[in-house]
C-alpha cells in the first residue's frame, strides 16, 4: 500500500517532510511536517492539530 502524495496548490510540487519551527506565546518548538520545497507552504494534518499541538498550546496557556 503506497502513501498518498500531497501536492502544493501553489507550485504543483509534491510536499516533502522538513523540520518546521512554530512559535506560540513566545515559545518556539519544532516538528517534521510536510512542506513545499519551492514556496515553503506547510501541510499540518488534523491529527497533529487536534493531538500534540493542542496539548502544547494547553500546557503553555496553563503556565
Describe this structure as you would to a colleague:
This protein has 63 residues and is of the alpha+beta class. Helix content is 27%, strand content 32%. It is built from one helix and three strands. It has one helix at 46-62; strands spanning 16-24, 27-35, 42-43. A hairpin with a 2-residue loop joins β1 and β2. The model has no long low-confidence stretch (mean pLDDT 84).
* pLDDT < 50 stretches: none
Determine the mean pLDDT: 84
Structural class: alpha+beta
Q: Output the helix-strand order.
A: EEEH
Biggest pleated-sheet summary: 3 strands, antiparallel
What fraction of residues sit in β-strands?
A: 25-35%
Number of helices, counting only DSSP H or I runs of 4 residues or more: 1
The rough form would be described as elongated
Distance between the termini: 43 Å
Give the fraction of residues assigned to helices. Answer: 25-40%
What's the total count of β strands?
3
Going across the biggest sheet, name each strand in turn: 1-2-3
- Radius of gyration computed on alpha carbons: 14 Å
Amino acid at each position: 500500500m503506497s502513501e498518498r502524495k500531497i501536492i502544493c496548490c501553489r507550485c504543483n510540487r509534491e510536499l516533502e517532510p522538513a523540520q518546521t519551527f512554530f512559535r506560540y506565546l513566545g515559545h518556539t518548538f519544532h516538528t517534521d511536517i510536510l512542506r513545499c520545497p519551492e514556496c515553503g507552504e506547510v501541510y499540518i494534518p488534523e491529527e497533529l492539530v487536534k493531538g500534540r499541538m493542542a496539548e502544547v498550546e494547553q500546557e503553555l496557556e496553563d503556565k
